[in-house]
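In the design runs reported in the main text, the only information available to the sequence generator was the tokenized backbone. The following block is the verbatim input for one such run; it is reproduced so that readers can re-run the procedure and compare outputs position by position.
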């Protein structure tokens, strides 16, 4: 597997990977979440900024990660792995890649928001070195992200902010 920057012509594929990975949410009673994937057009600004990386297996995208700066940290906006490549370390490798990128760019930490109880969400991220932030540790940008998520209806299920210091 090679991790590389996303190409403009593969944003539709990345969007589809996110939708395909979302099926797992439906299997755990979060059917609404499984239908909330991003459009290829919504990925364009991130790709143009150099903030989307692909896990490439023999020229095929097996997963992707997308980040953005939030309150002085690099925020993991999305990480998705094609179900055909699940449980092979691709998600962890993508997270490690952006940790290296964050260090290179001078960021002190990575942040993300996620579901608390799903095993491939908060418990997985904890194994990767992230910790759940107390409410009073959440930055204004993280609170804004959580407010947006709540407006989308994601707070029907327990969610949290997490941070990995670098």
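Verbatim output:
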């Amino acid at each position: 597997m090679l991790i590389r920057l996303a190409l403009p012509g593969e944003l539709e594929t990345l969007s589809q990977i996110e939708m395909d990975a979302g099926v797992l949410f439906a299997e755990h009673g979060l059917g609404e979440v499984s239908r909330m994937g991003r459009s290829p057009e919504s990925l364009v600004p991130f790709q143009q900024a150099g903030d989307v990386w692909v896990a490439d297996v023999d020229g095929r995208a097996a997963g992707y990660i997308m980040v953005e700066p939030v309150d002085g940290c690099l925020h993991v906006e999305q990480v998705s792995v094609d179900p055909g490549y699940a449980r092979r370390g691709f998600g962890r490798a993508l997270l490690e890649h952006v940790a290296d990128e964050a260090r290179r760019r001078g960021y002190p930490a990575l942040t993300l928001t996620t579901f608390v109880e799903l095993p491939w969400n908060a418990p997985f991220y904890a194994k990767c070195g992230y910790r759940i932030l107390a409410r009073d540790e959440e930055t204004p940008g993280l609170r804004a992200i959580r407010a947006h998520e709540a407006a989308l209806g994601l707070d029907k299920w327990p969610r949290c902010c997490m941070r990995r210091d670098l």
